[in-house]
Amino acid sequence: MSAPYERPTLAPSLYAYAKGLRDSDPDGPPPRGGHPVPDGARPRRRAPGLQYREACAAVTGTLVPLLGALDVLDLAHAAADAESALASTGVVHERTVFAAAAAIEPPEDPADRALARSFARHLVRSGTTVQGVSAGLGLLSRLAEPEDVPYLRVLGLLDGLVHPVDAALAPLDRGAAALVWLIHRTCGDELRALVDTLDAGDRAAVPDRLLSLPTDGRGPGPEVARRVAEAVGLAGLLRAAPDHPEILARAVWLLGRMTSSRDYQAEILRYGEAVDLYETVTARAHLLPRDVDHRARLLTLALDLHSGASHLLPWPPGRREALHRTLLDTAAWPGQAPARRDEQQRADWIRRTARGLRAAPQDPPRFRIEVAVADPGDPDVVETRFLIDGRPLVPEAFGPGPGESPERLLDSGVLRAGPEPREVRLAEAYCTEGCCGALYVTVRREGGHVVWSDWRRPGGPDGRPDLPAYRFDAAAYDAEVARAEQDHGWTWPARRTSRLITAGLRDRPDLLTRWGLRQGWISTDFRERDTTVVTFTGPPLGAPGLETARGEPRQFLWRLPDDGRPPEEQAAAVLRRLAKGDPRTYPELAE
Fold it and tell me: Please, are residues 97 and 123 in contact by the beta-carbon 8 Å criterion?
């Protein structure tokens, strides 16, 4: 005979079901991805053609009348009625139900507020469907108290409720919310061991599990890094281990991962203890070994404090600038000469980046353009950053991705203000514009001013503030754009080679077009930064005697490892070779 928690007809609440599963193996680790919800808890059909706004309206239209009559209703019956009505709406996605319920303003009257809280708790603790429990979690997200935490943690074991539980739990206990999320999203044995240790409450073993996490390409991305920091209580853990340089180094690494642009939002801005952790890390940075690895990671933090999302954290007056100077000075300490090629690349990056940060004006001008290159040990995009009145524009105005590359914005001249208005894409989402949006501005000249206005964020995130029209002194604007276009101090040889090849093809497009080929992106390899990659598209090469073959156009990749000659010579050699014949005949070409 099955246990009661396995039979929804006998123990219908999802909370009782999840609690029964946990109690059946109290000392065992939670399953990867959580437990599936029982059969029948999630409706199998949704209303056809129901748009998001319509779905939210259907949910609020169900809940609001009940909330307004709770003083004359039996709460248990009202919760059951709400579940039944929600099932009839055809809204099946738990995130939609949660968001709609969370958007309902709680009552101001204390007695009515208490009734609404009790109603939400009935849905959360007695609900039998994902919709009903998600609605209760949405209402409770603005009404919850510490006594709700154990119930939410238990419900967080169910796969179908991870998002609403995470969102409702975070305001009460960020560490518990992060652990719920990690239970469902964890990959890799080392991270799984940390999650199991946290779930078991074995705090003494947490430092060793934290130190076992890989810091190479298998390491966590930005959101996982934030969740790990929250789950382990990283700032407090670091304060409790003042003589533990390994924990300090791991904190620096996790903080740096949260600043990465390789995610859909700036995770450092979502980390509630970011300022505290920055303060603690910076105060102890001098305790780290002076090798290239640690210096590069400290400089990553300094760079983000200067012009990245970390600049936007709620800093007390003067603290960001003070921490930036300390991290920059510490990262620039001379160390042993690196022997390996990858260490030499990082040492070169440290010198270039530190030089650029020191050359930046102390008093922020009205308009500033900078190019940010990530640590070669943790590859990321090369982006163009804009500071307006000293504040970074893209992370504040957009968020889901970095600024466009300098090749797109500076080498092309699109930022120059001409007689006709020009729309310019300043940033694109980490995935693509078609998925999560982009940031556009129209640049125009008005007498003695250059104006940035008519902002567009197609497909971008909701909730961002409207952007004003920015007016810049035309002479100062023109001078800044010219300075940025002529500043090559951020480049390295292979990147310089790629830019020179692009410039050469801009002057002589016929080198490709005469073969029916179209130039693609030309840059450096994402992970092999000493290799220039030239791409172009066109028809495949035909059989001997035929110029082309029939078929869909293909993309061709021509990889050019840096051979040590000056970039000018390497680029000239590439252009000369293109002038001699069809590049599709090159034996080293890849498709």
Answer: no
Which residues, given as ranges, of the chain have pLDDT below 50?
A: 1-11, 544-546
List, for residues 19-76, the tens digit of each pLDDT value. Answer: 999 999 888 888 888 899 998 888 766 666 778 899 999 999 999 999 999 988 899 9
Distance of CA 190 to the CA centre of its chain: 22
**Residue 402 contacts residue 383 (beta carbons within 8 Å):** yes
Q: Give the model's pLDDT for residue 497.
A: 97
d(CA 569, CA 566): 5
| β strands within 457-509, DSSP E | 470-473
Sign of CA dihedral 336, 340, 343, 349: positive
SS3 387: strand
Helix (H, G, I), strand (E, B) or coil at 395: helix
The Cα–Cα gap between 124 and 137 comes to 6
Rounded distance, CA 415 to CA 71, Å? 61
Question: What CA–CA distance (Å, rounded) separates 125 from 13?
Answer: 7
Q: Say what the pLDDT of residue 51 is.
A: 87
Q: What is the predicted pLDDT for the residue at 1? A: 35
Residue 222 phi, psi (nearest 5): -60, -45
CB-based burial label for 583 (10 Å; 0-12, 13-18, 19+): buried
Predicted local distance difference test score (pLDDT) of residue 241: 87
Q: Considering only CA atoms, which of 549, 560, 546, 556 is closest in space to residue 512?
A: 556
Q: CA 32 to CA 35: how far, in whole Å?
A: 8
pLDDT for position 30: 84
The 10s digit of each residue's pLDDT in 161-194 is 999 999 999 999 999 999 999 999 887 889 999 9
Beta bridge partners of residue 519, listed in sequence order? 536
Amino acid at 443: V
Secondary structure (DSSP) of 14-53: HHHHHHHHHHHSTTSPPPTT-BPPPTTSS-S---TT--HH
Cα dihedral sign, 163-164-167-169: negative
Q: How far apart are CA 419 and CA 449, in angstroms?
A: 12
| Residues contacting residue 374 through CB under 8 Å, at least 6 positions apart | 260, 300, 380, 381, 382
Q: Which neighbouring-strand residues pair with 371?
A: 384
Rg of the chain over Cα atoms, rounded to whole angstroms, equals 28
CA–CA dist 441, 458 (Å, integer): 11
pTM score, whole prediction: 0.90
